[in-house]
Design brief:
The complex is a heterodimer.
Chain A (H helix, E strand, L loop, with lengths): L13 H16 L12 E6 L4 H13 L3 E4 L14 H9 L4 E6 L4 H6 L6 E6 L5 H14 L5 E6 L6 H10 L4 E6 L8 H10 L5 E4 L11 E4 L10 H8 L17 E3 L20 H6 L1 H13 L8
Parallel strand pairs in A: 1-2, 1-3, 3-4, 5-6, 5-8, 6-7, 8-9
Chain B lengths: L22 E8 L3 H7 L9 E9 L5 E8 L5 H6 L8 E6 L2 E7 L5 E3 L20 E5 L2 E4 L5 E2 L10
Antiparallel strand pairs in B: 1-3, 1-4, 2-3, 4-5, 6-7, 7-8, 8-9
The chains are: A alpha/beta, B mainly beta.
The complex binds zinc ion.
Zinc ion binds next to loops of chain B.
Chain lengths: 310, 161
């Protein structure tokens, strides 16, 4: 299977995912072996929404492969402000760069943009849609900590707007994973995502819950996301649910000793700092994994014009 | 007896919707959907098409049905297929010289392009981009090929007019 672009985790088979994760592991073990692999390669960064981490992680990845980046800069100073369409912007930057990374506030932006360019395009988040490169580093982290087969994972927090969650849930259907989704009713997974999960699910299945309690003891991985205060119509509604979805050492007393706790970061108060020093905490490793995983993705997409199965 | 497909029982509604010489008769459209049928086909009479429309006429199969007759234009199978989204029971007769020369049933297409607009205001297709709205047709609805929003009811209200 050949991919010219990485738009959604739905396009990836288990074999594709394993190719990327294996390549990332090789790179992680010996980064110097690829230090010049993409010398003279330029990656175009098009961030229509601010994101320091994802952007820096791509920038680091490209530079560690020997290449460099061109950046359209902040939205305020770009021609976007003057009303240029995304379709025009990507066609212009395509002339400068060998591959493009796009983050955009609108859903479907990456799909549309990919129709206008020939260079590989990587979706770094399209509104509440997808964030497949985050998913690859999440999967890498899960594989290192708990393995991807016979996995019981709890995914908790704002599941409605959490694009990282949507992408991860799709990708996990390729594996023998039981997925438990834990959220307030108002922040449940979008029905579109549930529809897809049921379509593609031939494994142990997915379940939705409102409290962590009932599933915590069975989990190998707990993936926590931030519940954004601004998603709630009023503060009291937020206060009602917020406590349910914050974890501390006391919460984890009911968990398995080898529970892995993940978070795409930034966190606010979902995970108490006291958990950071325990063996449960994997979120900083998870963030670190962004670089080797994005190096692997760039390497595979830039090789021979984009073929994830070498 | 009518042979243009417009007559269910050859009854009195023939008077309301006249026979056509050559063109297309879209029959058994769910009552009240005739204007949506024209919209989905992009027919608004602006190109001089001669149209006859019967709305809410009595029907054996559907209690009330609409009939649309387009003089001088034979619909293609592709055009007919998009009708399945809003008028799945409709039948299409192609008429030449007052004779029905082809009968089609509508078939669900795999996708419809440029016909519906996405109800998700955050969808890239609802901005000023040069992109044609595209929906995949599901068993029980349609789904935006860009933002993936699924629409199951009220599809007719998404028709891009
Ligand atoms: Zn859409």
């Amino acid at each position: 299977m050949r991919h010219d672009h990485l738009i959604t985790s739905k396009q990836l088979s288990r074999a594709d995912i394993e190719t990327v994760l294996d390549r990332a592991a090789e790179i992680d073990a010996d980064p110097s072996a690829v230090a010049d692999r993409h010398a003279n390669t330029l990656l175009g960064l098009l961030f229509f929404e601010p994101s320091t981490r994802t952007k820096m992680s791509f920038e680091t990845a490209m530079k560690r492969l020997g290449g460099d980046v061109v950046d359209m800069g902040s939205i305020e100073s770009s021609s976007v402000k003057k009303g240029e369409t995304l379709a025009d912007t990507v066609r212009v930057i395509e002339g400068y760069a060998d591959a493009l990374v796009l983050r955009h506030p609108r859903q479907g932006a990456a799909t549309m943009a990919s129709e206008f360019v020939d260079v590989p395009l990587l979706n770094a988040g399209d509104g509440a849609g997808h964030h497949p490169t985050q998913t690859m580093l999440d999967l890498y982290t899960i594989r290192e900590n708990a393995g991807l087969d016979d996995l019981t994972i709890g995914i908790m927090g704002d599941l409605k707007y959490g694009r990282t969650v949507h992408s991860l849930a799709h990708a996990l259907t390729n594996f023998d994973a039981r997925q438990h989704f834990i959220s307030p009713e108002s922040l449940q997974l979008p029905r579109e995502v549930v529809y897809d999960l049921h379509q593609s699910d031939d494994g142990p299945g997915i379940r939705e819950h409102e409290t962590l309690e009932e599933v915590l003891p069975s989990l190998d991985v707990l993936y926590v996301t931030r519940i954004q205060r601004e998603r709630f119509p009023d503060e009291s509604e937020y206060q009602k649910v917020a406590g349910e979805y914050q974890i501390d050492l006391e919460t984890l007393e009911a968990a398995a000793d080898d529970l892995t706790v993940m978070h795409p970061l930034p966190r606010v108060d979902e995970i108490a700092p006291e958990i950071d020093d325990t063996a449960h905490a994997a979120y900083f490793d998870q963030a670190h994994n962004g670089v080797p995983v994005r190096m692997a993705l760039l390497d595979l997409l830039l090789a021979d014009g984009g073929d994830l199965d070498e | 007896m009518s042979n243009d497909g417009g007559g269910e029982t050859g009854g009195d509604h023939q008077l309301r919707v006249s026979k056509i010489r050559s063109g297309t008769v879209i029959d058994h459209v769910r009552g009240g959907q005739a204007l949506n049928v024209l919209a989905i086909l992009g027919i608004d009479g602006s190109e001089g098409e001669e149209l006859s429309i019967g709305m809410n006429v009595p029907s054996d199969r559907l209690a009330r049905k609409d009939i649309v007759k387009v003089e001088g234009r034979e619909l293609s199978q592709d055009e007919v297929d998009v009708l399945s989204l809003i008028a799945p029971e409709s039948t299409i007769n192609i008429v030449r010289d007052y004779d029905v020369i082809e009968k089609h049933r509508v078939d669900r297409p795999e996708l419809v392009e440029g016909v519906l607009s996405c109800p998700n205001s955050e969808c890239i297709t609802t901005g000023d981009e040069p992109v044609t709205s595209t929906f995949d047709v599901l068993e029980d609805g349609v789904r935006c090929a860009y933002c993936e929003t699924i629409v199951r009811t009220g599809i007719a209200s998404l028709i891009d007019t």
